[in-house]
């Protein structure tokens, strides 16, 4: 398993939908900013938005096992091998991410505990 580079490409804000459905004072995502970079594999990076992670983790996990030059996800989506463009699920202010497979091997940073089920 390798690490996946997560880059925040941009934050968006749908003013029309926010005016109709959002709370007063709603604005673009306050947690993530364009240009931020995170690295992940099996676990959410520290400081990364929980909701955004839920939306993209399956792509991160798939790319962490990516090993070749083939196009990701059947080759009918993104033209660059080892890359996925994803967004969080916030319909009023989605954040767009670029996910890139890397050659950096992941390391488990905890000691797994073998517990017997009683």
Helix and strand content put the structural class at: alpha+beta
Strand line-up of the largest beta sheet = 2-1-4-3
Largest sheet: 4 strands, antiparallel
Strand content: 25-35%
Distance between the termini: 31 Å
Helicity, as a percent range? 10-25%
**What's the total helix number?**
2
Average pLDDT: 90
The rough form would be described as globular
Low-confidence stretches: none
Can you write the helix and strand succession as a string?
EHEHEE
Q: How many β strands by DSSP?
A: 4
* Rg from alpha-carbon coordinates: 17 Å
Question: What layout of secondary structure does this protein have?
Answer:
Blueprint: E1 2-11, H1 15-21, E2 37-40, H2 50-64, E3 83-87, E4 95-105
Antiparallel strand pairs: 1-2, 1-4, 3-4
Structure report:
It is a single chain. A hairpin with a 7-residue loop joins strand 3 and strand 4 (about 95-105). The protein has about 120 residues and is an alpha+beta fold. About 20% of the residues are buried. It has a four-stranded antiparallel sheet, with helices on one face. It is globular. Helices cover about 20% and strands about 25% of the residues. It is built from two helices and four strands. It has helices at about 15-20, 50-65; strands at about 1-10, 35-40, 85, 95-105. The chain starts with a strand and ends in a 13-residue tail after the last strand.
């Amino acid at each position: 398993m390798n690490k996946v580079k997560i880059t925040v490409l941009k934050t968006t804000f749908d003013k029309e939908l926010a005016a109709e459905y959002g709370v007063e004072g709603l604005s673009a995502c306050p947690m993530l900013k364009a240009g931020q970079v995170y690295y992940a594999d099996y676990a959410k990076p520290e400081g990364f938005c929980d909701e955004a992670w839920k939306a993209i983790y399956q792509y991160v996990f798939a790319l962490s096992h990516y090993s070749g030059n083939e196009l990701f996800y059947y080759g009918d989506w993104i033209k660059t091998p080892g890359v996925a463009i994803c967004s969080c699920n916030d319909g009023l202010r989605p954040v767009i991410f670029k996910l890139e497979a890397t050659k950096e091997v992941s390391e488990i940073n905890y000691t797994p505990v073998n517990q017997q089920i009683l």
